[in-house]
Amino acid sequence: MNNGLRNALIALSLGGVLVTSQSALAGILVQCPGDVDGDAQWATPGEIQPLNTKCMHLGAGDGFITMADGLSQYIFSFSDLTGLVTKPANPGDGDDVMMEGMLGASFPAPPIVLEEGDEFYLTLTNVGMSVRPDLFDPHTVHYHGFPQAAPIFDGVPDASISINMGSSLTYYYKVNEPGTFMYHCHVEATEHMQMGMLGNLYVRPAQDGTTYNYGGRSYTRFAYNDGDGSTGYDVDYPIQIGSFDSAFHIASETVQPLPFAMMKDNYPMLNGRGYPDTVNPDPLPAPTQNGGKVSQKESSLITAAPGQRVLLRISNLNVTQFNTLGTMGVPMTVVGIDAKLLRGPGGKNLFYQTNSVTLGGGQALDAIIDIPANAASGTKYFLYSTNLNHLSNDTEQFGGMMTEIRVN
Known about the structure:
This protein is mostly beta strands.
């Protein structure tokens, strides 16, 4: 029974897809069609990527990020382990996934970008908590808003598998609908989402690559399968609304009771940063506690040329409050809400123009900004929270939930 016990798997066959979990016995198992070395990609000679197939390997663990006022914050989140070999050809070869994943958590979590029609294999490995080894929290991935999700892949722990420390699970999704989604851990959701297990996820439509003329211009990239080019754009940016309660994070790091009832966020952020860090186009320096691992890779700076259309893929994963984002100087045209094109039963577009949008936790929308054709290079517009108390980094003013739209 030695090999059988060591390799004991819980196997489920859903629609011809084999899913395996090593919850009872620790082990890293990456499932990706055509991938022979378990790195969730097809870089090794002889490996063949099946048509319309994507794979990704995420780690779930802890780490640190730095607030815009310099405060270090302890987080839980995901890391991108794609490309690390888990089935080496020779003993001792390959990368150590556990070592790379520990203290590798990033905020926001690594972005997931898919195309309509993809078959997506997402492996999650729970690498454990380096700072809090007393915590044995399992983790999941919840693809928020995914239509017709099989319960086993939905990530809600009372209906699907949760992944224990040192174990892996490969989720399978047949991506049938475009739009802006999001993903997060659904285990002890209030705690794990407050701690940072949140990521951008969006799906590009099958219409991409087809040329449509709209408003006197030609487009080949679209927010949705509109059939008329009305959601055409030149550049797109994911913008995730979020905020931290520093007292909650400090209590978690210092092994204190967690103040759920007193939760009040004091660090509003866009893509895991407060202003002015939001407009830094580069990854932020790695906190010393992370051992040199960069944890804030996603900028919120928006750049475009005069006359271009900018698609903002806005999502709100805040667990404590509604948030309103406004633009100054340029209006937004909302074309989709919660991954659905705004179009009536008769085919009429129900787009609307506005200078502010309000989202609750778990909501998303797609908004297009038209940069004026006569805008001078260097012109700045602002995307910011109209909740003025969210324009701060704790007690430091002139920060928080704000970024710039720069004309280049």
